Amino acid sequence: MTSSAPAPSDAPTGAPAAPARPDAARGAPLVVVLAGGLSHERDVSLRSGRRVAEALRATGLEVVLHDVDADLLAFLRETRPDVVWPLLHGASGEDGSVRDVLDMVGLPYVGTGPRASRVVWNKPISKAALLDAGLATPDYVTLPQSLFRDLGAQPVLDTIVRRLGLPLVVKPTEGGSALGVTVVTRAEDLARAMVECFAYGETALIEQAIDGVELAVSVIDGPDGPEALPAVEIVADGGYDYAARYVAGETEFFAPARLTAEQATLVADAAVRAHEALHLRHLSRTDLILDRSGVAQILEVNVAPGMTEMSLLPQAVAASGYELSSLYRAIVDTALTPAR
């Protein structure tokens, strides 16, 4: 393939490798993949960005990998890419702010718009929306750090255990990659879990831990509407934490998941319904647990799923029989097509 785009590197470029060409001189569409940023998930974003850039180049597209920095707006205005693919994880990448900027600049991009992204980014708000849509999600409470100072930590902790029981999952209301997430099986461990959570945000989501099969179901917008890819089953000793997600050998994955046909249909339907209820676009990933009673309990939904070599969406693509590069190209083509 002949391309003026730079070869993949360990970090996004801050400027194009070659002068921007007028639109009339362009051959293949030019895609800017945004990766990096300054969130706790920067390294994961860089890995996702490199993988997607390589896959898109394999389809003949011109691709430039770019960080989110002071040069970005000038670069976008000068280069005027045909489409932008934000592969930023964590704050700014998933809270809608970068997408707001892309809307202001007038560039099409892959993924959900800023308003729906903000709903999904805030886990308690998205859980409320899922409940309103008739979907199941673990029972929960949301408490800010200031409340523990105002009311005293121990009385609040005791009330949480009485209300929700044990085991519990404590997580920041915003963020991803399981950062600040703790599974609590003993009441005496809850205080430490809250401290670890508050290291990543001012507000904690405390929810009932659900026993069952942990699954991730990716959804892609196709010509006939949202389509669920095969569920990926996650088996991790000690919980699906950051290391389990990104260190090879820490977790066992089954793609497709070891489900009956009826169970596979049920979790696929739940993911598609979540995608639609939250007004998501192009792609999403729903993390859920199929509980012992056969209910799909949605844990959270992601507007910018990871695309690393260990990430769940690429595994689902492989299990579906689709070719990864071709599917990514189809997503880009969808983003290039004006909404009707």
TrEMBL record:
Binding site for Mg(2+) 1: 287, 300
Domain of life: Bacteria
PANTHER family for the chain: D-ALANINE--D-ALANINE LIGASE, D-ALANINE--D-ALANINE LIGASE B
Disordered, as annotated region: 1-23
Organism of origin: Promicromonospora soli
Gene name of the encoded protein: ddlA
Family note: Belongs to the D-alanine--D-alanine ligase family.
Active site: residue positions: 41, 177, 311
One MF term in the entry's GO annotations: metal ion binding
Name the record gives this protein: D-alanine--D-alanine ligase
Reactions it catalyzes: 2 D-alanine + ATP = D-alanyl-D-alanine + ADP + phosphate + H(+)
Upper lineage: Bacteria, Bacillati, Actinomycetota, Actinomycetes, Micrococcales
Compartments in which it is found: Cytoplasm
Annotated metabolic or biological route of this protein: Cell wall biogenesis; peptidoglycan biosynthesis
PROSITE patterns cross-referenced by the UniProt entry: ATP_GRASP
Domain ATP-grasp: 127-333
Cellular component annotations (GO), alphabetically ordered: cytoplasm
Positions annotated to bind Mg(2+) 2: 300, 302
